[in-house]
């Protein structure tokens, strides 16, 4: 979980390209890269940016240790000792701009912009994408679940099914950013201050002579934290009646049982019956927790069936993003130094959606002053001036240029924030609760049709006319050269 010692958390081709630049003498050439994704995950209407804190920690501690250098010296490429000494002295001196964690983000807009020498901007690609892709994916999945769960309590229960410890801990953090209320992971609780929640396993009940004894002893040990798992043997005939008995014993002590947990069977039917049994026993304050491979689809279905569930424990489907286990974010060169001047560069592909947008860019969120809601995201070059507040801004779809719209009476909110400037951290990392609150304000900026689970409205991401014209010109020039 530590970010120290991660200089070799990179792909070998990064080191090889750095070496080739060093041999060529081009390693100090200036370059600008942008990280973004091309397609929204899960068929959702938005994504939630996450991973910035880990990226900041990684950049701050980025250096090659003696062990790293010794390992590189053994590689079949036989890197020259002078190159290895260059790496030993390496520190990141570039600049990074990024979205704030918790921001709602969309395809083909820069989430992170990295500027510096080609040597340093190339090295950090793999780690930045690794941290951004995973945490953004999990935060998006968590926000999607939250949209379905409404005001219910959401617990992150995924540790044992996560792809190793880092995924469990940072995944729990990403889920908390997007609205989950607690995690079962104690290390995530310690590291990030996330509330922790837990009940007991079936093995606790199996350890004792009877289910009733197991419940009573658990309640004696932690009388203020009693949530009982009621499906070890028979939920309706044994588990709930025994839990009611324990709850009555707690009441006699002036205590109240928190909840029961259902972890198998027909959760809709069992929760309805459990609610009736608890209410008939005068235990209307006892909540019902459900777990068992839940995701936004099953939660939506259970709600449609009238399930009486207050709290959802979501594990495997969240922490592994089971229905789409990768975001697919990319990191593309958009500007490079030629003869002392920075010039835009473009990547052409046989797949139109893979053609990059050239040039260093800014992202603005266009907010209607009338409704306070987001109209579109607007991508332009840094030197372009935004129209005054009462001026007109021309929006057009970069894939369908005939689709144009003029907007007035708007606020243009810059979305990319300076994080590092010439190697110095200039951004104060917010507390996790601040990030959660920021995510909530982001959700409030969007109409419900962009946030819904099924068939969300497509949010507009527009290029400025100048950016679009540069892209069209560069594509045409490359096509012309390829035909010569």
TrEMBL record:
Catalytic activity annotation: 5-phospho-alpha-D-ribose 1-diphosphate + nicotinate + ATP + H2O = nicotinate beta-D-ribonucleotide + ADP + phosphate + diphosphate
Pfam families per UniProt: NAPRTase, NAPRTase_C, NAPRTase_N
GO biological processes: NAD+ biosynthetic process via the salvage pathway
GO-annotated molecular function: nicotinamide phosphoribosyltransferase activity; nicotinate phosphoribosyltransferase activity
CDD domains associated with the record: NAPRTase_A
InterPro entries reported for this sequence: Aldolase_TIM (IPR013785), N/Namide_PRibTrfase (IPR041525), NAPRTase_C (IPR041619), NAPRTase_N (IPR040727), Nic_PRibTrfase-Fam (IPR007229), Nic_PRibTrfase_pncB (IPR006405), Nicotinate_pribotase-like_C (IPR036068)
Protein's pathway: Cofactor biosynthesis; NAD(+) biosynthesis; nicotinate D-ribonucleotide from nicotinate: step 1/1
Keyword Glycosyltransferase: yes
Domain Nicotinate phosphoribosyltransferase N-terminal intervals: 8-133
Post-translational modification comment from the UniProt entry: Transiently phosphorylated on a His residue during the reaction cycle. Phosphorylation strongly increases the affinity for substrates and increases the rate of nicotinate D-ribonucleotide production. Dephosphorylation regenerates the low-affinity form of the enzyme, leading to product release.
Top-level EC class as recorded in UniProt: ligase
Keyword flag Lipid biosynthesis: no
Entry GO CC: cytosol
Family to which the UniProt record says this protein belongs: Belongs to the NAPRTase family.
Protein name, UniProt field: Nicotinate phosphoribosyltransferase
Organism: Paenibacillus campinasensis
């Amino acid at each position: 979980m530590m970010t120290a010692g991660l200089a070799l958390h990179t792909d070998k081709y990064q080191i090889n390209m750095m070496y080739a630049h060093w041999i060529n003498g081009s390693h100090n050439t200036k370059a600008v890269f942008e990280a973004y994704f091309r397609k929204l995950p899960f068929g959702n209407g938005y994504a939630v940016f996450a991973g910035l804190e880990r990226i900041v920690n990684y950049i701050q501690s980025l250096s090659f240790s003696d062990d790293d250098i010794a390992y590189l010296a053994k590689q079949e490429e036989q890197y020259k000792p002078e190159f290895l000494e260059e790496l030993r002295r390496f520190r990141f001196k570039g600049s990074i701009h990024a979205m704030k964690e918790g921001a709602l983000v969309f395809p083909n807009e820069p989430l992170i912009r990295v500027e510096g020498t080609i040597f340093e901007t190339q090295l950090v690609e793999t780690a930045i994408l690794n941290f951004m892709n995973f945490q953004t994916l999990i935060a998006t999945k968590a926000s999607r679940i939250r949209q379905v769960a409404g005001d219910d309590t959401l617990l992150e229960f995924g540790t044992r099914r996560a792809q190793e410890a880092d995924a469990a801990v940072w995944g729990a953090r990403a889920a908390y950013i997007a609205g989950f209320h607690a995690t079962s992971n104690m290390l995530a609780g310690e590291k990030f201050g996330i509330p922790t929640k837990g009940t007991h396993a079936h093995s606790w009940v199996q350890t004792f002579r009877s289910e009733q004894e197991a419940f009573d002893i658990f309640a004696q040990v932690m009388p203020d934290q009693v949530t009982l798992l009621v499906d070890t043997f028979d939920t309706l005939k044994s588990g709930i009646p025994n839990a009611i008995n324990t709850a009555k014993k707690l009441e006699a002590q002036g205590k109240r049982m928190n909840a029961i947990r259902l972890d198998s069977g027909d959760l809709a039917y069992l929760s309805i019956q459990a609610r009736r049994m608890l209410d008939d026993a005068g235990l209307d304050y006892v909540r019902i927790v459900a777990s068992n491979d839940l995701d936004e689809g099953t939660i939506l279905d259970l709600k449609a069936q009238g399930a009486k569930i207050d709290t959802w424990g979501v594990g495997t489907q969240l922490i592994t993003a089971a229905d789409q286990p990768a975001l697919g974010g990319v990191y593309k060169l958009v500007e490079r130094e030629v003869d002392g001047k920075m010039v835009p560069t473009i990547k052409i592909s046989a797949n139109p959606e893979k053609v990059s947008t050239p040039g260093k860019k800014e992202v603005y969120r266009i907010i209607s002053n009338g409704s306070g809601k987001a109209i579109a995201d607007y991508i332009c070059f840094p030197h372009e001036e935004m129209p005054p507040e009462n001026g007109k801004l021309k929006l057009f779809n970069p894939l369908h240029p005939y689709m144009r719209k003029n907007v007035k009476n708007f606020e243009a909110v810059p979305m990319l924030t300076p994080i590092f400037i010439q190697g110095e951290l200039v951004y104060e990392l917010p507390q996790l609760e601040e990030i959660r609150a920021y995510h909530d304000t982001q959700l409030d900026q969007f109409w419900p049709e962009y946030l819904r689970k099924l068939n969300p409205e497509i949010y507009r991401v527009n290029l400025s006319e100048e950016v679009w014209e540069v892209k069209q010109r560069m594509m045409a020039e490359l096509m012309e050269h390829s035909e010569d």
